[in-house]
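Re: [ENG-882] Designed sequences occasionally contain unexpected residues at chain ends

Forwarding the minimal case from QA. Structure tokens:
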């Protein structure tokens, strides 16, 4: 008969510093081999507003999915009585998804534990809920149980097949994910480590991602999401511009080797100052294809402008995009800490040294991921951008405050406009709400042709952008739209 006063024994670290998790029906039972931690997961994925308590529909979560600690067999250890390992309670956990430009996700963790720091222990329960940027908290996604913590304070938990509710994702769509947290508990009750797992809709592993959890209510703004904290590098602008010519060009900007395309209007090399348009491609795309798909070759036969189409950061060995999102529009990086904003600055500066550019007529546009990128740049370089025209775009982070209200033409393809299972109809309408709330001139074109750039919209987009300069005071679209705009366009109100 077991003595209930004896210390609980669980599995400990085996060779290679791997963790084991086990469960015991009696506090003094010795585990001879590890068993997976049980997982409780809700089939109902409604969330609750932290302030009002109102139920809000979110993504479906399948019951029975597992979340567990590592199951490697381990030697016996004795857990000290009581709990000085980490305080029971609620924690704010930030996750930065490296393949998505360190895009941040947030969770509420509720845990209970037993053991001692530097003495081994167990996370008896580790429940996670998704949290939105504005504080909405979802229902439990999963709960890991009886996760072993080694004498070096390390642990490992896997959450398989959970669905992040639309209200907590940057794109406003449900996102299935699996998460593997390999972490360490620190004194003063915080924990951090590495994240692996998968985002199936994007076919993307989360290798290289990070997480950090601190006591609920003590998190910084924005919340930190790595062991090192969020001490992001601050880049400097390019010191010496490269030679630039029509065609493919190279530049090292923000410590990254980049390429971009330059196109000039038909006819002799212009000597007068011309508008500059920066055109951004989507996820998995490239600059030359984007120029064709956006019909700019045809536009430039009649319109006088200089076109620059950047490529996203590429792996020098494979030529593929370094980020699954191609661009850094999802990161909470809004100035010289964002490589894409520095790249934009360097492109404008260096192209202006080669060609006569009118600094009051600089515009940004793009499609899909490029629509998200041109929105991000338009919002965060408002002192430079005279107008923006994103196609199937949106804004994934907190809308900034700025003095110059950049005019926006928002174009998308209706309720069936989606890519990678993300709903661009939702993103477009959300963006229009941000713009109207900030007092920006806004025109919208819902073409209803799904995720595409209609040929007739190129002339309309150019007409909209070129109608504004950086110091424009009047709104030429206050009461009506010119005939070049298709019938599906309207003034946003």
């Amino acid at each position: 008969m077991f003595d209930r006063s004896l210390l609980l024994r669980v599995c400990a670290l085996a060779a290679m510093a791997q963790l084991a998790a086990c469960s015991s029906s009696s506090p003094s039972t010795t585990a001879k081999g590890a068993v997976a931690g049980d997982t409780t997961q809700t089939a109902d994925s409604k969330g609750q507003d932290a302030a009002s308590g109102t139920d809000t529909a979110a993504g479906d979560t399948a019951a029975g999915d597992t979340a567990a600690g590592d199951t490697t067999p381990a030697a016996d250890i004795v857990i000290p009585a009581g709990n000085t390992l980490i305080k029971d309670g609620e924690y704010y956990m930030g996750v930065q998804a490296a393949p998505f430009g360190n895009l941040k996700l947030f969770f509420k963790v509720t845990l209970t534990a037993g053991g001692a720091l530097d003495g081994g222990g167990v996370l008896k329960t580790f429940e996670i809920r998704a949290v939105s940027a504005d504080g909405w908290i979802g229902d439990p996604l999963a709960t890991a149980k009886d996760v072993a913590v080694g004498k070096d304070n390390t642990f490992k938990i896997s959450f398989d097949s959970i669905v992040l509710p639309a209200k907590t994702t940057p794109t406003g769509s449900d996102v299935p994910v699996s998460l593997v947290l390999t972490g360490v508990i620190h004194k003063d009750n915080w924990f951090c480590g590495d994240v692996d797992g998968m985002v199936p809709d994007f076919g993307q592993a989360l290798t290289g991602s990070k997480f950090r959890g601190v006591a609920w209510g003590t998190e910084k703004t924005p919340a930190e999401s790595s062991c090192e904290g969020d001490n992001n590098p601050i880049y400097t602008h390019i010191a010496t511009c490269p030679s630039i010519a029509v065609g493919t060009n190279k530049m090292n900007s923000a410590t990254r080797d980049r390429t971009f395309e330059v196109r000039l209007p038909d006819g002799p090399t212009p000597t007068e100052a011309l508008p500059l348009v920066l055109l951004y491609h989507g996820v998995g795309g490239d600059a030359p294809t984007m120029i064709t798909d956006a019909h700019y070759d045809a536009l430039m036969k009649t319109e006088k402008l200089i076109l620059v189409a950047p490529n996203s950061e590429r792996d020098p060995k494979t030529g593929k995009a370094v980020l699954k999102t191609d661009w850094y529009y999802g990161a909470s990086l809004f100035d010289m800490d964002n490589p894409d904003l520095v790249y934009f600055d360097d492109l404008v500066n260096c192209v202006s040294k080669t060609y006569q550019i009118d600094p009051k007529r600089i515009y940004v546009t793009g499609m899909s991921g490029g629509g998200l990128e041109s929105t991000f740049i338009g919002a965060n370089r408002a002192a430079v951008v005279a107008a923006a025209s994103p196609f199937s775009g949106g804004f994934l982070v907190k809308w900034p405050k700025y003095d110059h209200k950049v005019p926006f033409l928002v174009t998308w393809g209706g309720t069936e406009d989606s890519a990678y299972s993300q709903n661009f109809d939702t993103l477009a309408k959300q963006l229009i709400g941000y713009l109207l709330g900030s007092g920006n001139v806004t025109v919208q074109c819902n073409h209803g042709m799904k995720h595409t750039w209609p040929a007739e919209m190129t002339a309309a987009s150019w007409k909209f952008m070129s109608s504004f300069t950086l110091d424009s005071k009047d709104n030429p679209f206050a009461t009506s739209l010119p005939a070049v705009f298709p019938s599906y366009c309207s003034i946003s109100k």
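QA comment: On inspection the terminal residues look reasonable. The first strand starts at residue 9 and ends at 11. Proposing we downgrade this to a documentation issue.
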